[in-house]
Amino acid sequence: MRRRRELAERTRIPDSIDQALAHLAKPLYKDFHAELYTVFRVTRIFNNDLQREVDRLEIKAGYSIDTARRQLEYNDNCDGVEFIWMYKYRCASIKLLEKLVHLTLRARGAALVPRPCPGCGVRHREFFLVSAAGGIDGLCVIIEFWLGALGQPIQRLSIPPVN
C-alpha cells in the first residue's frame, strides 16, 4: 500500500523531468531484465484539410521478454494495421527505462495517440505521434541517453521481421 501511495505522489508531480528524477532517486517497483523495442504503427485517417485519407505514423517504445512473440501478438490481433519493427535494446532495469523514456517524450511535448487501434479497437497505450517524438532517431537518442545514465550497455539491435 505504501509503494502505491508513493507512486501516486510521483505521478502528481507536474513537471515530467522532476518525475523522472523522482523515479531515478528511488524506484518503487520490482524490475527485471528484458528488451525495450521500438515499433512504428501506420494507420489511415481522414484529413479534413486535404479532404482525403492519409497515412499517419505513430511510434512506441515498449518492453517485452520475447520481442518475437510480441510481434506475433500485434500482427494477429491488429488486422489491417501495418507495424514496422525497428530496434531493440537489452536492459536489466526495463520498467525504469521505459518509464524514463515516456516521461522524456512527454517533457518534449510528444502527444499520446488519442484514438483506439483501427485494427482491433483497443487503445494501445504509449503510442506517440512520430513528428512530436523526433522520429526514430530522436527516440533512439532518448533511449540511449537513459541506458547510459543507468550504467547499462548501449547496443542497438535491428528487429528481424516475423511471419
Topology:
Layout: H1 2-11, H2 16-25, E1 34-47, E2 52-64, H3 67-77, E3 82-91, H4 94-107, E4 127-129, H5 130-133, H6 135-149, E5 157-158
Antiparallel strand pairs: 1-2, 1-3, 2-4, 3-5
Helix pairs in contact: 2-4, 4-6
H/E element order = HHEEHEHEHHE
- Overall geometry: globular
What proportion of the residues form beta strands (DSSP E)? 25-35%
Q: What structural category characterises the helix and strand content?
A: alpha+beta
Low-confidence runs of at least 5 consecutive residues: none
The major beta sheet can be summarized as: 5 strands, antiparallel
Distance between the termini: 43 Å
Q: Percent helix among the residues? A: 25-40%
**Spatial strand order of the main sheet:** 4-2-1-3-5
Q: What's the gist of this structure?
A:
This protein is an alpha+beta fold.
What keyword list fits this structure?
163 residues; alpha+beta; five-stranded antiparallel beta sheet; 6 helices; 5 strands; Phage_T5_Orf172_DNA-bd; Bacteriophage T5 Orf172 DNA-binding domain-containing protein
Describe the protein's architecture and organization.
The chain has 163 residues and is of the alpha+beta class. Strand 1 and strand 2 (52-64) form a beta hairpin. The protein has one domain (28-158). Strands 4-2-1-3-5 form a five-stranded antiparallel beta sheet, sandwiched between helices. 39% of the residues lie in helices and 26% in strands. The protein has helices at 2-11, 16-25, 67-77, 94-107, 130-133, 135-149, and strands spanning 34-47, 52-64, 82-91, 127-129, 157-158. It contains six helices and five strands, in the order ααββαβαβααβ.
